[in-house]
Amino acid sequence: MSTKEKLIERFKRIPSDFTFEELISIMGHYGFSLLNKGATSGSRVAFKKGELSVIMHKPHPGKIVGKKTLRSIIDFFTKNAIWEN
């Protein structure tokens, strides 16, 4: 199993210590680009791939992504058939 596959399996388990950098890596693996929402957006960021986009708040002051956000992204991946079979 490759490092990327191990990271994806870890992501699917919704760990309590999943970092924003790990999320960027996974989103990039599925073809999403990280976009800053603008100077007045605060901590909001978007991951975009064609017409699909996920908007979220970048974690702060730490770098750990919340479980609610991870669940939301997993639901988005499932609903939009992004997972590999």
Number of domains: 1
Average of pLDDT: 90
Total count of helical runs of at least 4 residues: 3
User: How much strand content do the residues show?
Assistant: 15-25%
Explain what you see.
The protein has 85 residues and is an alpha+beta fold. The protein has a single domain (3-79), classed as Metal Transport, Frataxin, Chain A. 39% of the residues lie in helices and 19% in strands. The protein has three helices and three strands; from the N terminus they run ααβββα. The chain has helices spanning 3-12, 20-29, 67-79, and strands at residues 33-36, 44-49, 52-57. Helix 1 crosses helix 2 (20-29). It is globular and about 40 Å long.
Task: Describe what is shown at a glance.
The chain has 85 residues and is an alpha+beta fold. Helices cover 39% and strands 19% of the residues.
